[in-house]
């Protein structure tokens, strides 16, 4: 009975698949007559599971992460401000590079003044950006100013590059009547509709899957823009981070996920945060284009962001960038980092490898900057920042 | 056997037998599962042409209207593309394309956040959470993000175009993870709107109001009504205002307040009270849980002096508690008896013992007797 049935089914099959499929059908059935230990169906050469179509192997082999080589860190310029390979030099104009430098240093100056303002009791709270200026300015310079930014909280440099004024920073931190956020949030929770920077919220990683949704909206609107989402290596442990990357990949959203891996989540070092090869190694798992970059090299950050933006907009797919950097400041004014890391460690980074020093050396080599210019700018920037702060208090 | 086969092969007779068997089966199942008798609403003449629809079809019709009118509108969630596990989005992908009606990965927090992001850039986002019981991974995104978006940005950004739909409530066999009523969990958060319809006509009008509303809305659909509630529903778009309760039965002795499926229980209780006690009950469907229509309830209580509030959700910190507190504060001298809450018990929702957990007509009827005899 069953044989009859199968013959009938086979005939029906042929009826619908003749004649081109006949030979393959015969091939399919043939091997059943071969000896049992040699049976191998043609369609068993490769896995055909809905979830994987890679290859079959006949020896058990675990994947040991520690036996894999780490994802390399892309850099353009060394700590002395020298370009390794001139073909990788982004070739930015003198004006652009000087604006980059001035914004990075102005951010630094503003941080010092607002940090002190908190210590003097003028504002309730503050978070500095020391050591991470390169990731802010490098990305901001590479983006279209209309690309939408979803930040975490330590991305003030992006706003500064886009033209958020010192007054606007101060208004928010002081919760003045001119604060666009109406004094509703703690300091450093900036936002600007005009500068396409979504207002910061305190919960970590919540901005990440929102960025995927916004990017999907941009894709449908066909506006040629992308979304950039900043987050820390600590935030990447949140479930929202997983949802964000997976949604962006499967729904093909033009969004750059930019991880600022600065070594610490408040006090928690990366060793206590994850055991894999940083955050970049996760990108491949999500099927995302991924790169790791030296976050203290503003040109490398610029280059990788520019290229990522192209991929996002041209191919409608997300890109993950992990920028390796170091948080020189405390987490916030409520934190004293000497409780969990040595002063020597911090001063090592502060002396040996900051994005500002690296860019300054580059500019001096180019003959675009010198000690006099530095001295003059230091005074000028300090005056601008403290004037704003004093007016508010 | 042969005779039966002979019967079945005859087309029309087969259909007749099958449909009758199906009907009988459905009736038996429904009688076992449901603790209420559904009374259909009548559509308003001004809303024009109508078609017979059950609840999932009226939800589908509302979303169809929304997608047709607003080219930015998108529908997404788990298993939404093929039509959804309750068939609410059936046919919409074919009609509007797979970029507007699409599956997401299985992550509730991802779904809600994705919707927030879409709404922030101006798209109308209609997110489906497959069961209200599974909305909790998204609690942070709903409470900390969606609800506060406009406020915390000083109105620079908002996600008002987000609507989250989720099936809720008892269904006869859902146990603790397919039966919960979660409205009170969200009623504690300023910035959200929470809506529960009692039937197909209401569902369509209220859902469209949620979709067009400028604030994030949570629209909870009593899943037992998806197939069992059938009404003549207007085909074209119409809206029913949010935050307005409806007096669906006027009375003078006792005010009965509920929402969703429970409205039908209250309607039956009103009939029982009239027949057995000669007591006249006023039945109010709250419809919007947050922000709720206090005035309609207060006006009714001023008239009747007695209030019974009933919902499926557990009694402690349920929404009945809020209503009772607010009413006693404002209408203390009008009350003839203590306010009664007839709700679910403070237990995980049971499986085989579901009928004993429901705030059914007999429990509500007891409460009516209590307020009358106080």
Automatic annotation (TrEMBL), chain A:
Protein name: 2-oxoisovalerate dehydrogenase subunit alpha
InterPro entries reported in the protein's UniProt record: Alpha-ketoacid_DH_E1_comp (IPR050771), DH_E1 (IPR001017), THDP-binding (IPR029061)
Keyword Protein biosynthesis applies: no
GO molecular function per UniProt: branched-chain 2-oxo acid dehydrogenase activity; metal ion binding
Location of this chain's protein in the cell: Mitochondrion matrix
RNA-binding among keywords: no
Organism: Sinanodonta woodiana
Stretches assigned to the Dehydrogenase E1 component domain: 102-384
An annotated GO cellular component: mitochondrial matrix
Sorted UniProt keywords: Metal-binding, Mitochondrion, Oxidoreductase, Potassium, Thiamine pyrophosphate, Transit peptide
Known catalytic reactions: N(6)-[(R)-lipoyl]-L-lysyl-[protein] + 3-methyl-2-oxobutanoate + H(+) = N(6)-[(R)-S(8)-2-methylpropanoyldihydrolipoyl]-L-lysyl-[protein] + CO2
Function: The branched-chain alpha-keto dehydrogenase complex catalyzes the overall conversion of alpha-keto acids to acyl-CoA and CO(2). It contains multiple copies of three enzymatic components: branched-chain alpha-keto acid decarboxylase (E1), lipoamide acyltransferase (E2) and lipoamide dehydrogenase (E3).
Family: Belongs to the BCKDHA family.
UniProtKB/TrEMBL annotation, chain B:
Top EC category: oxidoreductase
Keyword line: Mitochondrion, Oxidoreductase, Transit peptide
SMART domains reported in the protein's UniProt record: Transket_pyr
Principal localisation: mitochondrion
SUPFAM superfamilies registered for this protein in UniProt: Thiamin diphosphate-binding fold (THDP-binding) (SSF52518), TK C-terminal domain-like (SSF52922)
InterPro entries, sorted: THDP-binding, Transketo_C/PFOR_II, Transketolase-like_Pyr-bd, Transketolase_C
Function recorded in the entry: Together with BCKDHA forms the heterotetrameric E1 subunit of the mitochondrial branched-chain alpha-ketoacid dehydrogenase (BCKD) complex. The BCKD complex catalyzes the multi-step oxidative decarboxylation of alpha-ketoacids derived from the branched-chain amino-acids valine, leucine and isoleucine producing CO2 and acyl-CoA which is subsequently utilized to produce energy. The E1 subunit catalyzes the first step with the decarboxylation of the alpha-ketoacid forming an enzyme-product intermediate.
Protein name, entry field: 2-oxoisovalerate dehydrogenase subunit beta, mitochondrial
């Amino acid at each position: 009975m069953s044989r009859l049935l199968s013959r009938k089914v086979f005939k029906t099959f042929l009826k619908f698949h003749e004649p081109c499929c006949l030979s393959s059908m015969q091939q399919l059935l043939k091997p059943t007559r071969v000896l049992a230990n040699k049976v191998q169906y043609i369609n068993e050469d490769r896995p055909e599971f809905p979830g994987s179509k890679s290859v079959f192997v006949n020896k058990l082999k675990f994947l040991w992460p520690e036996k894999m080589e780490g994802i390399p860190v892309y850099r353009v310029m060394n700590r002395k401000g020298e370009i390794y390979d001139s073909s990788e030099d982004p070739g930015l104009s003198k004006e652009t590079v000087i604006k980059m430098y001035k914004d990075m240093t102005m951010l630094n100056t503003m941080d010092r003044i607002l940090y002190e303002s908190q210590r003097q009791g003028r504002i309730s709270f503050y978070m500095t950006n020391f050591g991470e200026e390169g990731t802010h300015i490098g990305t901001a310079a590479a983006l279209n100013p209309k690309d939408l930014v979803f930040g975490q909280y330590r991305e003030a440099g992006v706003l500064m590059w886009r033209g958020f004024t010192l007054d606007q920073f101060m208004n928010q931190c002081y919760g003045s009547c001119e604060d666009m956020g109406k004094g509703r949030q703690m300091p450093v929770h900036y936002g600007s509709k005009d500068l396409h920077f979504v207002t910061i919220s305190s919960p970590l990683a919540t901005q990440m899957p929102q960025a995927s949704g916004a990017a999907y909206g941009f894709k449908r609107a066909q506006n040629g823009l992308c979304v950039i989402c900043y987050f820390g290596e600590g935030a990447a442990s949140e479930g929202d981070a997983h949802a964000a990357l997976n949604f962006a990949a499967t729904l093909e959203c033009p969004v750059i996920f930019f991880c600022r891996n600065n070594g610490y989540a408040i006090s928690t070092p990366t060793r206590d945060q994850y055991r894999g090869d940083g955050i970049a190694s996760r990108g491949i798992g999500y099927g995302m284009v991924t790169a790791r970059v030296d976050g203290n090299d503003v040109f490398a950050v610029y280059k990788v962001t520019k290229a990522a933006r192209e991929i996002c907009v041209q191919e409608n797919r997300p890109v993950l960038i992990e920028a390796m950097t170091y948080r020189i400041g405390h987490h916030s004014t409520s934190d004293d980092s000497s409780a969990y890391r040595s002063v020597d460690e911090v001063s090592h980074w502060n002396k040996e490898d900051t994005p500002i020093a690296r860019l300054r050396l580059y500019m001096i080599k180019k003959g675009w900057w010198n000690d006099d210019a530095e001295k003059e700018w230091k005074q000028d920037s300090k005056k601008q920042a403290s004037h704003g702060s004093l007016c508010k208090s | 056997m042969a005779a039966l086969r002979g019967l079945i092969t005859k087309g029309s007779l087969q259909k007749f037998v099958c449909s009758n068997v199906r009907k009988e089966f459905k009736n038996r199942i429904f009688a076992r599962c449901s603790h209420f008798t559904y009374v259909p609403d009548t559509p308003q003449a001004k809303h024009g042409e109508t078609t017979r629809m059950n609840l999932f079809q009226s939800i589908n019709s509302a979303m169809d209207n929304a997608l047709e009118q607003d080219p930015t509108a998108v529908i997404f969630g788990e298993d939404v593309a093929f039509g959804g596990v309750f068939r609410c989005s059936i046919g919409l992908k074919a009609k509007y394309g797979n970029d507007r009606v699409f599956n997401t990965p299985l992550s509730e927090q991802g779904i809600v956040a994705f919707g927030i992001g879409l709404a922030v850039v101006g798209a109308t986002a209609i997110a489906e959470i497959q069961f209200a019981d599974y909305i909790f991974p998204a609690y942070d995104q709903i409470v900390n993000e969606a609800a506060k978006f406009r406020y915390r940005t000083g109105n620079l950004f908002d996600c008002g175009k987000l609507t989250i739909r989720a099936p809720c409530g008892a269904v006869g066999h859902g146990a603790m993870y397919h039966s919960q009523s979660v409205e009170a969990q969200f009623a504690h958060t300023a910035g959200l709107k929470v809506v529960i319809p009692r039937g197909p006509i209401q569902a369509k009008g209220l859902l469209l109001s949620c979709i067009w509303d400028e604030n994030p809305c949570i629209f909870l659909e009593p899943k037992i009504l998806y197939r069992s509630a059938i009404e003549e529903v207007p085909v074209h778009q119409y809206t029913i205002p949010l935050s307005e309760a409806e007096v669906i039965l006027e009375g003078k002795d006792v005010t009965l307040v509920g929402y969703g499926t429970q409205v039908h229980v209250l309607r039956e209780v009103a009939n029982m009270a009239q027949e057995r006690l000669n007591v006249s009950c006023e039945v109010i469907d709250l419809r919007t849980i947050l922000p709720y229509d206090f005035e309609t309830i207060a006006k009714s209580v001023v008239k009747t002096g007695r209030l019974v509030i009933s919902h499926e959700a557990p009694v402690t910190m349920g929404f009945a508690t809020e209503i009772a507190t607010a009413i006693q504060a404002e209408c203390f001298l009008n009350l003839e008896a203590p306010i009664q809450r007839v709700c679910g018990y403070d237990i995980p929702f049971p499986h085989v013992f579901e009928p004993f957990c429901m705030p059914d007509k007999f429990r509500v009827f007891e409460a009516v007797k209590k307020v009358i005899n106080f």
